[in-house]
# Entry
Amino acid sequence: MVAVLGAQSVCLAQVAPQVTLRSVVAADKTNVTYLFLGPSAGGTKVRSVVALAPGSGDESMGRTVLERYFASEAMRRGWSVSVPVVPASEAGKAGYFRRRPDLVVAVADDVANLLKIDGGSHLLAGVSNGGLDAFAVAVVAPGRFGSITVLPGALDAEITDEELTQLKGKPITIVVGEKDGSWRAAAESARKRLEAAGAAVVVRSIASGEHVLRLESRALMDVLGGDQRAATLDGLVMNTGGSIAGWTQEAAEVGKERRDPPVALDVKERAIAGVLEDFHDAAAKADEERYFQHFTPDAVFLGTDATERWTYAQFRAWAKPQFANGKGWTYFARDRHIFISPNGDCAWFDEMLDNKKLGECRGSGVLVRIDGVWRIAQYHLVLPVPNDLADELVRRGRELAEDRK
# Structure
């Protein structure tokens, strides 16, 4: 049971028109923040979406999810969208809300205290790893959520068939890209288990779609609203109009002002962050196609060894047998900094990475925008050397170099 101290729910910072970063305290005194898009209060009933972000699930990724999938249509329809934010201390660890589903429930209850929820229950959504989180949340508090939509999603192995019976009769839509092989298999497995539990499951395969789905937000909102088989879902790319950071004509028609052009840099930074998050996620899942689609054809990968300067073709040839055997590599990114050239077509970044075997690493590189898509032209992975160890490592490095001669 989760109790929310509603009086302590406060608006912390205005981050964009009608978007606030709110905070709520759960029963165990844990504080959870969430991005909120929608009316601040009022007597009119509102459809409420609670969406769980992919990757790190931090504030930046939450903004990306709002912008990519929900913002423009939520404003047009007058819906609210809430995205719980993974705290910075946990952002590099997958499955935070799977471990703490009560915090998502606390967010849902806080929104219910703020607004009159149309239908009496929220619409639960999750993207990629957020899709796994969504099912963990739903089985804990099935009464809070009227439907579940994941883009894509799967069932965590720890969810039992008995727990799934809590979702009997619940409309569940799993949207997955036609080319997203491993997630398609996971979606089909989830469908079978959910159907056996009595849920009303529909799996939607997006033609030519890959892992990062590009959907038109109106069609997606139709699905969230109950039309699981919305014909308009297939074959449409996302509508970037009316995004949080750059309001376009569609948003202006519902009374929102257009933002100044410099704010668009924030949009690009979030797009780049999304590319890097998906890049690392694909490596962790040994998804060769998804991983290498993020590179330019003339990309260079620089590894930790001085001999590891690989062209795209060389790096893919080296990685192919590992990925084929299901052996990827997992790096959790944090402390990322992104910079964009004045013309907006080139970017460079650096990020700290945590790896089970190598410990703390650093990645840096360059991206270029090709036909509107950011692709990695260079990625450089290094092991930062503590200054106190530098002399010893240099000496041992020279000895190894001599031995190799």
User: Anything to note?
Assistant: The chain has a mean pLDDT of 80. The chain has twelve helices and 17 strands.
